[in-house]
TrEMBL record, chain A:
Keywords (A to Z) from UniProt: Cell membrane, Membrane, Transmembrane, Transmembrane helix, Transport
Annotated ABC transmembrane type-1 domain residues: 87-292
PROSITE patterns: ABC_TM1 (PS50928)
GO cellular component, one term: plasma membrane
Subcellular location: Cell membrane
TM region positions: 93-114, 126-153, 173-192, 242-266, 272-296
CDD domains, A to Z: TM_PBP2
Family to which this protein belongs: Belongs to the binding-protein-dependent transport system permease family.
InterPro entries assigned: BPD_transp_1_N (IPR045621), MetI-like (IPR000515), MetI-like_sf (IPR035906)
Organism from which the protein derives: Acrocarpospora macrocephala
Protein name: Peptide ABC transporter
Taxonomy, superkingdom: Bacteria
Main subcellular localisation: membrane
TrEMBL record, chain B:
Single biological process term from Gene Ontology: transmembrane transport
SUPFAM superfamilies named in the record: MetI-like (SSF161098)
Higher taxonomy: Bacteria, Bacillati, Actinomycetota, Actinomycetes, Streptosporangiales
One of the record's GO cellular component terms: plasma membrane
Membrane topology: Multi-pass membrane protein
Domain of life of the native organism: Bacteria
Encoding gene per record: gsiD
Record's subcellular location: Cell membrane
TM spans (from-to): 36-55, 100-122, 134-155, 161-180, 211-233, 267-286
Species of origin: Acrocarpospora macrocephala
Family: Belongs to the binding-protein-dependent transport system permease family.
Identification of the protein by name: Peptide ABC transporter permease
Domain ABC transmembrane type-1 positions: 98-287
Automatic annotation (TrEMBL), chain C:
Identification of the protein by name: ABC transporter ATP-binding protein
GO cellular component terms given for this protein: plasma membrane
Pfam families documented for this protein: ABC_tran, oligo_HPY
Keywords: ATP-binding, Cell membrane, Membrane, Nucleotide-binding, Transport
Length: 308, 300, 366
């Protein structure tokens, strides 16, 4: 817990210092052309650039704890408002991508482990090595080209909110979600298959087989839970990565989430927004990874005893 | 209980002499499929590296020379893979773009490896406060979603090849530090290390003479995986326009440029996409191969 | 099939003929079981004795059909339960054969129970699947079984996870699982090896009692001749994937013919020996079973080995005087040829394979 807090502090300091890394005076970038020295001084006071680093950090942190992420240099809208508008979109994509990846990976991983070298395993391995070699942005473009341009089944870009038209919303979501899920799904299959193959050679599984129990029952009840440790561990990282890291996919499909916001903000040199998103995504990442530790006892009662 | 007897009875009613065709599986040495992936991957990577180094002497068009002909179809005229919308030769841009990918893939990985292994071995060997400090730093680096971390860092600094390599190296450090630390801890318990220490060897000597070689074996197989990941990361940045500033050609940048014409001229995105695919595929295959080799060696 | 054969077959509970199980490994084919014949009559106990790596566990796993995927059962191998060739039925076709007629107790009770399920859940699962009991009936039966194997407070134990129980208790639970559907054949693969010495006897006695009560046949696999000495009706000694000697227990001990059997018996520590006597051990280690040469696998370690043992593989043959007693040795103990072979080797101080032979080899090493 102490380590967690320490990391939080380090992360906050680092994100705060991000603004200091920017070469040149940030004020110059904010001033319109032909601004007077008076306007410049006003701006410096407004953003507190005249104070010391430590003072600014403390007041920044104080604002942060009150939910004030600052005001966008570009739009003059509070950053927190913009993020609150866009976060649900990124969250939806992440959750759907995660669900899709798991829904494919769990049965395929189990079956590949049960019949290594079998037809499912070989197809999965083939697709996996191809997917693994396809960066998300290439995969997204290929998907757009095949399903959007050539077949014309799905929209190429654009975002329709669920409240506006649930059906069109779903159609708009399919390709981005597949692009996001692809690589993660392959990762999940690899992890689950590896752990599952080890578990299937353990005595208690052999013992259950010797008892003549049906295969599916052995796989799911006697083997799956213990084979999920790596999967659960990585799930925390992956969902964090999906929430904060869907930058490319959001850009390609013009989805109004946090990822596209960060790119827009960078292009506008609106670093206070960049800072807020980086901090937020790091927070989510940290918290999810800590939550994963709490899931272990659910997987194995032996851990339950060790932690209590 | 009667149910069970019934079942057994039915089982026994099968005439014992009847044998189905698959009753006795024929033993055959499972054919070990020759794995052509790793050698082919090595050939491809060799081509890319040599191309990147010798690009200036190759009979290629100037990658930045804006031509007056937009030759959309590959294979026609002077341009083997066609030109982009500005008439720039695609093959030439791909070869020059390989410089960026390889500079990042090899340079940033090497840098990350040196720093990561040094940190990891120090943490694993000295333990205690050194370990806690280094582990905290590594955990700190891993507290950010990787792409977000990179974007923020590179965007804040001025995009340049040096900054790119530095940022990517920082991203790769935790992987190396963790594996080096785990292996150092495992090997530090072994007799040859104890013996060396008992003979009065300095920590530096023990680390470099006794431990380094053993730690490097798993590190090497990780290296290929990290290279692939960093090539992709660089591609992502260039695709977003946050990589090496134009007009320097990069595969990610070419993809981004070609996207607007994708409907009419898919080769504008498919060719750089293919370069990415083949390169990452080659790294992965070689990585799998290396892991298999190392796995077998350590099991002997 | 003649009527006589049919009658013999029906009295036999388990019949193994020419069983060969090879493993495909990166370093070559491992002949883990290389031509094994066994017979077990209903209600009797067969002891299988051998060092680790002799193929005894592979043998039991091939009967249970739980071999690793890399294992290959060669054509011509036969395993029959009451005449039924097990190769012709798959667990899918006959769901209630394995686990009901045939069951198995594993070596290590620490690992052979599923850690994420309670003891009761594992028992009722098996009972409900095979016997079609209702939830309540199965729970009642589970508690009865736990009582039967001597677990105190069975109702409480049923709700616990395996890691809450001691090793001995867990092995009792695995036995309860194995006998839950009243098997006709129970395979116990080193059931006491992983347990404390004090618990070992309790478990062996429990198995003996259960067998006496139910009349099931039992295959007791062990590396310790002492374990099967007083309990098995007959004993088969395995070495390097083959049976090297088999006989009814009493005859094996009174008239052993294979030098390996002798070496195993010599390796049992005895109270009658003065303390600080060096324990007898068998020199060398079991051979690697990849592409074994035409030779007796034990020859390099055998005090009687002659040149012939290095160029020919002896087959398991009944002894001339006793058809129930078979051994696979060119120079069996107790025969003129065998005694001469051993004496010559002792005189020379070395056997045909170049291994040193001590005069005192058979009693205690010096």
């Amino acid at each position: 817990m102490a380590r967690f807090v320490l990391l939080l502090v380090m992360v906050s300091v680092a994100t705060f210092l991000l603004l200091e890394l920017i070469p040149g005076d940030p004020v110059d970038g904010l001033l319109p052309e032909g601004a007077t020295e008076e306007m410049r001084q006003q701006l410096i006071q407004l953003y507190g650039f005249d104070q010391s680093l430590v003072t600014r950090y403390v007041s920044w942190l104080g604002d942060l704890l009150h939910g004030d992420l600052g005001t966008s240099w570009q739009t003059r809208i509070p950053v927190a408002t913009t993020i609150a508008e866009r976060a649900p979109v990124s969250l939806e994509l992440a959750v759907l991508a995660m669900a899709l990846a798991l829904a494919v990976a769990i049965p395929v991983g189990i079956y590949s482990a049960y019949r290594p070298g079998g037809i499912v395993d070989r197809i999965a391995t083939f697709i996996a090595s191809a997917t693994l070699a396809t960066p998300a942005f290439v995969l997204a473009i290929v998907l757009v080209w095949v399903f959007g341009v050539q077949l014309g089944w799905l929209p190429i870009v654009g975002w329709v909110p669920f409240s506006e038209d649930p059906f069109q919303h779903l159609r708009a979501v399919i390709l981005p979600v597949i692009s996001l899920a692809g690589g993660e799904c392959v990762l999940f299959i690899r992890l689950l298959k590896g752990d599952m193959m080890a578990t299937l050679q353990q005595d208690h599984v052999l013992s259950a087989r010797a008892r003549g129990l049906p295969t599916w029952r052995i796989l799911v009840r006697h083997a799956l839970r213990q084979s999920s440790f790596s999967l659960v561990t990585v799930s925390g990282v992956v969902i964090g990565r999906l929430i904060g890291g869907a930058v490319i996919v959001e850009m390609i499909f013009s989805i109004p989430g946090l990822g596209s916001l960060v790119v827009i903000a960078i292009n506008n040199r609106d670093f206070i927004t960049v800072q807020a998103i980086v901090l937020l995504s790091a927070l989510i990442y940290l918290v999810l990874n800590s939550l994963v530790d709490l899931a272990y006892p659910l997987l194995d009662p032996r851990v339950r005893r060790a932690t209590t | 209980m009667t149910d069970v007897v019934g079942h057994t009875g039915s089982a026994l009613s099968v005439p014992p002499t009847v044998k189905s065709a698959d009753a006795a599986p024929v033993v055959k040495r499972r054919r070990r499929r020759r794995d052509y992936g790793a050698p082919l991957g090595a050939v491809w990577l060799g081509l890319v590296v040599v191309g990147a180094i010798t690009a200036d002497w190759l009979p290629l068009a100037d990658p930045n020379e804006i031509g007056n002909v937009f030759s959309a179809t590959p294979g026609l005229g002077d341009h083997l893979l066609g030109t982009d919308i500005l008439g720039r030769d695609i093959l030439s841009r791909c070869v020059y773009g390989a410089r960026i990918s390889m500079a990042v893939g090899l340079g940033a990985t090497a840098l990350a490896m040196v720093v990561g292994v040094a940190f990891g071995m120090a943490a694993g060997y000295f333990r205690g406060a050194v370990d806690s400090t280094i582990s905290l730093f590594v955990n700190f680096l891993m507290a950010f979603p990787p792409l977000m971390f990179l974007i923020a860092l590179v965007a804040a600094m001025r995009p340049s090849l040096t900054n790119l390599v530095l940022g990517l190296a920082l991203l790769g450090i935790p992987n190396f530090a963790r594996i080096a630390r785990a292996n150092t801890i495992a090997f530090a318990e072994r007799e040859f290390v104890t013996a060396s220490k008992a003979l009065g060897a300095s920590p530096f000597r023990v680390l470099t003479r006794e431990l380094l070689a053993n730690v490097m074996l798993p590190v090497m197989s990780l290296m290929l995986v990290v290279m692939a990941a960093l090539v992709v990361a660089e591609g992502s940045l260039s695709f977003l326009g946050l990589g090496v500033p134009p007009p320097t050609p990069s595969w990610g940048g070419m993809l981004a440029d070609g996207r607007s014409q994708m409907n009419e001229h898919p080769h504008l995105v498919m060719i750089p996409g293919l370069f990415f695919f083949l390169t990452v595929f080659a790294f992965n295959r070689l990585g799998d191969w290396a892991r298999g080799r190392i796995g077998r060696e350590s099991s002997l | 099939m003649s009527t006589i054969e049919a009658r013999t077959a029906s009295r036999l509970l388990l019949q193994v003929r020419n069983l060969k199980v090879w493993f495909d490994t990166p370093r070559g084919l491992v002949r883990a079981v290389d031509g094994v014949d066994l017979d077990l009559r209903a209600g009797e106990t067969l002891g299988i004795v051998g060092e680790s790596g002799s193929g005894k566990s592979v043998l039991s796993r091939s009967i249970m059909k739980i071999l690793a995927p890399s294992a290959r059962v060669l054509p011509g191998s036969e395993i029959r339960l009451k005449g039924l060739d097990l190769a012709t039925v798959s667990p899918k076709q006959n769901k209630h054969l394995w686990g009901v007629d045939l069951s198995m107790v594993f070596q290590d009770p620490m690992t052979s129970l599923t850690p994420v399920l309670t003891v009761g859940a594992q028992l009722t699962e098996t009972l409900r699947f095979h016997l079609g009991l209702s939830r309540d009936q199965a729970e009642e039966e589970a508690i009865r079984l736990l009582t039967l194997v001597g677990i105190p407070e069975p109702a409480k134990r049923a709700k616990q996870y395996p890691h809450n129980l001691s090793g001995g208790m867990r092995q009792r639970v695995t036995i309860a699982l194995a006998i839950s559907c009243s098997p006709e054949l129970l395979i116990a693969d080193e059931p006491t090896t992983a347990l404390d010495v004090t618990v070992q006897h309790q478990i062996l006695n429990l198995l003996e009692r259960l067998q006496a009560d139910s009349g099931m046949g039992m295959v007791l696999i062990t590396h310790d001749l002492g374990v099967v000495a007083g309990r098995a009706d007959s004993i088969a000694v395995m070495y390097a994937g083959r049976i090297v000697e088999k006989a009814p227990t009493k005859r094996l001990f009174s008239n052993m013919r294979h030098p390996y059997t002798r070496a195993l018996i010599d390796a049992i520590p005895r109270i009658s020996h003065p303390s600080h006597t060096r324990l007898a051990s068998i020199p060398g280690r079991p051979p690697v079973l990849i592409d074994p040469p035409q030779a007796c696998g034990f020859a390099p370690r055998c005090p009687s080995a002659q040149p012939r043992c290095l160029s020919e593989t002896p087959v398991l043959e009944p002894t001339p005087i006793d058809p129930a007693h078979a051994s696979a040795c060119f120079f069996p103990l107790g025969t003129p040829a065998g005694d001469a072979a051993r004496e010559n080797n002792i005189k020379a101080g070395v056997n045909a394979a170049g291994t040193a032979v001590n005069a005192g080899e058979s009693t205690d090493g010096r």
